[in-house]
TrEMBL record, chain B:
Full protein name: ER lumen protein-retaining receptor
Signal peptide from the UniProt entry: 1-25
Species in which this protein is naturally found: Glycine max (Soybean)
Keywords: Endoplasmic reticulum, ER-Golgi transport, Membrane, Protein transport, Receptor, Signal, Transmembrane, Transmembrane helix, Transport
GO biological processes: protein retention in ER lumen; protein transport; vesicle-mediated transport
Amino acid sequence: CYQEPPKDEL
Amino acid sequence: MNIFRLAGDMTHLLSILVLLLKIYATKSCSGISRKTQELYAIVFVARYLDLFTDFISVYNTFMKVVFIASSLAIVWCMRFHPMVRRSYDRELDTFRHYFLVGASFALALILHEKFTVQEIFWAFSIYLEAVAILPQLVLLQRSGNVDNLTGQYIFFLGAYRAFYILNWIYRYLTEPHFTRWIACVSGVVQTALYADFFYYYFISWKNNSKLKLPA
């Protein structure tokens, strides 16, 4: 399944 | 990383540098809301809990540490620095900011991506950041006069938000899975709060006059 990427914004 | 996000991060950094410069050079924090600064400190500490669990890039980690450290330093100066604290406009900075903290946390408990401690604190920080500028805007409205550095500080903060919206539009168009609804909707609300300030900022810039907000 599609895994949410880590939050890369500040 | 796209150009809009980089521009957003840089204007955010610049806003903090302008604020530090104002406090350092004039040894004064007049016109600055301590409540807004305390809210930002809470925002960064709550959002960057992932500092210890997710590594994204050196840039990302470095900026997170800078934002946490600078926001805590500003609050420390406004509370404890013998000269700076005397210039604090205590009687003008009366916005009940604890309501914002409570309401943001309640909303985070209802609306979040996953029901985990980190995700709830992340959503909380997004909601709180959206409204954290309110005590500052209320203080400016009450004092009427805005000194140059304070005006520039808020201008850069607003620019940071505007660039982040462009960044989301860009990411939405270029990345197949980009759907950060919580961040995007809160971000638009947050940017809208600056609209009034921007209007008066541009008027004063166009007329080459001092920034004044109507009572």
